[in-house]
Amino acid sequence: MNAPNCSEPSSKYQHHLFPLVYGVAMVLGLPGNLLALYIFLFKVSPRTSSGVYVVNLALADTAILLTLPFRIHYHLHDNTWVFGDMACRVTGALWYANIYISICFMTCICVDRYVAVVHPHRYLRLKNPCGAAAVSVLLWAVLGVALLTFICMGSLESVQDPTSGSRCFESFTRGEWERRIGPYSVISLVFCSLLPSVVILVCYPLAMRRISRIGGGTARRAQRIIFTVLAITLLCFLPYHTVLLLHLLRRMDVIRHCGPANAIYHARRVTMALVSLNTCLDPLLFYVTSKHSRHWRPLRRLWLWCRARREVGIYTLSHAADLGETAASAPRDYCHQRKERSGFSTKTFNQMSSVQ
After folding, report:
1. Within a 13 Å sphere around the CA of 298, how many CA atoms are in the beta-carbon half?
2. Could you tell me which of 163, 175, 157 has the C-alpha nearest to residue 10?
3. Across the chain, what does the average pLDDT equal?
4. What's the maximum distance between 2 C-alpha atoms anywhere in the chain?
5. Closest CA to 69 of 103, 135, 25
6. Is the dihedral of CA 196, 201, 203, 204 positive or negative?
7. Segments making up each domain of the chain, as ranges
8. Where are the alpha helices (H) located in the chain, listed in sequence order?
9. Which of 36, 49, 173, 345 could form a disulfide with 58 if both were Cys (CB 3.0 to 4.6 A apart)?
10. Under a CB-based contact definition with an 8 Å cutoff, are residues 72 and 18 in contact?
11. What does the pLDDT look like over 280-323, one tens digit per residue?
12. What integer is the mean pLDDT of 340-350?
């Protein structure tokens, strides 16, 4: 529902925007997350607390990536949902839940690295992966209860467009917003977005001073992890949650003018597409988190091979001719250098023969 007396703006572009972005997320994110699960579950030993958080983050990303084909089909068919009400509630709830569980696990990774560098003696007592597993179970339990409660509350009421089919997880009626969507959005924004963002965006830049003074490999790796988390937060999560706050104000009729309301409507579509790209940026976090970089060499070789294939066209026949001439002259140069080093040339041999 838009602002009072404002018609809903045209959003035909989303029928192309969402499938494109979701397709990129699947192509890049699914192999990266599956590779991370394989490495951290079967290759990395011993288990660490950061590794436990990484596995859970990869599981969350993989779960949401498996639901994206349904969303792609929905947007390609003019926002018409054909998979039933239960599938709509499950896939929609999982999509939004991934946003909040991802930022929670990234916060856990940052906290773990911060304690490891700034309080190493305390970390030695707390680095048991069982503690990280307990935190992960608690987060999944809270998420599971919230999801089940949301799904079991019944069907979602949406404002249906007579010119299109059934909508899914958008254009909620005012009653649905006041009964379910509004409270869930406020709670999620405060506890699953605002608080973790404060930890990431405020505490850790301040902690970088102390980390930079320590030096060493552990400190440098902690810096890479924190910078990567900051980049993902600023690129994917912060724009989405900023626009979500404005969207909440619009739905509560705090923002009533049509111009700002329409701008928020379009910004929400763009940031919803942008936030899904965290699933293909998280493998970068997995790489900088792991000490076992050798396990990522196959992915690096694939990237180098693709890069070499793109650059092969810059070479010309003249380059090949130069290379051939260099290769042909190499044996002669080698023999000449060998004779000079030995100090025994043809001229010296003739002089010795004449003396004899």
Report:
1. 7
2. 163
3. 78
4. 117
5. 25
6. positive
7. 14-296, 315-347
8. 14-38, 49-65, 68-76, 85-118, 120-126, 129-152, 174-176, 182-189, 195-198, 204-214, 217-232, 238-251, 258-275, 278-289, 297-311, 317-342, 346-355
9. 36
10. yes
11. 988 888 777 665 545 545 555 555 555 565 555 444 333 433 44
12. 45
Please give the C-alpha separations between residue 174 and each of 8, 121, 271, in angstroms, as whole numbers.
15, 54, 23
> How far is the first Cα of the chain from the last one, in angstroms, to the nearest whole number?
111
* CB contact set of 235 (below 8 Å; sequence gap of 6+): 274, 277, 281
- What's the CA gap between 168 and 156, in Å, rounded? 8
CA distance 218 to 211: 9
| Residue 101: other Cβ atoms inside 10 A | 24
Provide the sign of the torsion angle of the four alpha carbons 265, 183, 22, 99, taken in this order.
positive
pLDDT in tens, 14-32: 889 999 999 999 999 999 9
Instruction: Reduce the secondary structure of 145-161 to three states and give it as a string.
Output: HHHHHHHHCCCCCECCC
14-296 homologous superfamily: Rhodopsin 7-helix transmembrane proteins (1.20.1070.10)
Cβ atoms of 16 and 266 closer than 8 Å: no
Distances (CA, A) of 206 to 194, 233, 299: 18, 17, 34
pLDDT score at 335: 47
Alpha-carbon torsion, ordered 249, 252, 258, 263, to 10 deg: 30
pLDDT of 220 > 80? The answer is no
Residue 139 has pLDDT above 70, yes or no: yes
Q: How far is CA 296 from CA 6, 26, 38, 293, in A?
A: 52, 19, 11, 5
User: Can you say whether residue 215 is alpha, beta or left, with left for phi > 0 and alpha for psi between -120 and 50 degrees?
Assistant: left
Match 């293909």 to its residue by tokens.
280
Instruction: Name the residue type at position 324.
Output: G
Q: What would the two tokens of residue 83 be?
A: 């998979």
Q: Could you identify the residue written with the tokens 């909040």?
A: 100
Question: Residue 327 pLDDT more than 60?
Answer: no
| Residue keyed to tokens 């007579």 | 162
